[in-house]
Write a structure and sequence with these properties.
Layout lengths: L1 H15 L10 E7 L3 E3 L7 E10 L15 E5 L4 E6 L13 E10 L22 E4 L1 E5 L10 E2 L3 E4 L2
Parallel strand pairs: 2-10
Antiparallel strand pairs: 1-3, 3-6, 4-5, 4-8, 7-10, 8-9
């Protein structure tokens, strides 16, 4: 009899627990950088790791390795252009009936400092009058259905220009 009552209580508790349900449109959060400064450069001279958190209600996130295209986009607010595009790995939809969530970590290589047009200094130069450059970025993701997430602004990185 005690076992029967315990089972009823367990089934009632299980029946009250709801799994998380997410919107079919991906949701994105900026979680942080591995460091707050990076040395400027043209080719892989320095890097940082960006950490993002995402959810996707229909679980159709990621791109198959044999497919083309990207689904993580990082926009440089200094130029209002896409700075980097990445391909997040394919996440199978099997078992994703209530959606998926996870952490994305991306190693992002450096870029050049950009100076005021009136200075006449080309990007990636090393002038003493501009020792640092703020690098403000916006990030968004898309799922396989083409749904675009919210756009998040990352904490500003400092580029060491000299």
């Amino acid at each position: 009899m005690r076992t029967f009552i315990l089972l009823i209580i367990v089934f009632q508790v299980i029946g009250c627990v709801k799994s998380k349900e997410y919107a079919d449109t991906p949701y994105l959060e900026f979680r942080g950088w591995s460091k707050s400064t990076m040395n400027q450069g043209r080719i892989k001279e320095d890097s940082v790791t960006i950490t993002l958190f995402f959810t996707d209600g229909d679980g159709d996130f990621g791109i198959a390795s044999n497919s083309t295209g990207e689904n993580v986009f990082i926009k440089d607010l200094r130029t209002n252009e896409i700075l980097r595009q990445y391909k997040a790995p394919f996440v199978p939809e099997e078992g994703a009936g209530n959606g998926i969530s996870g952490t994305i970590k991306i190693k992002m290589y450096t870029t050049c400092c950009i100076f005021p047009p009136s200075s006449g200094i080309d990007p990636c130069e090393r002038p003493s009058m501009f020792p640092t450059n703020d690098l403000p970025l916006e990030i968004y993701i898309t799922d396989r259905a083409g749904n675009k997430s919210n756009v998040v602004q990352a904490d500003v990185l400092t580029l060491n220009c000299k």
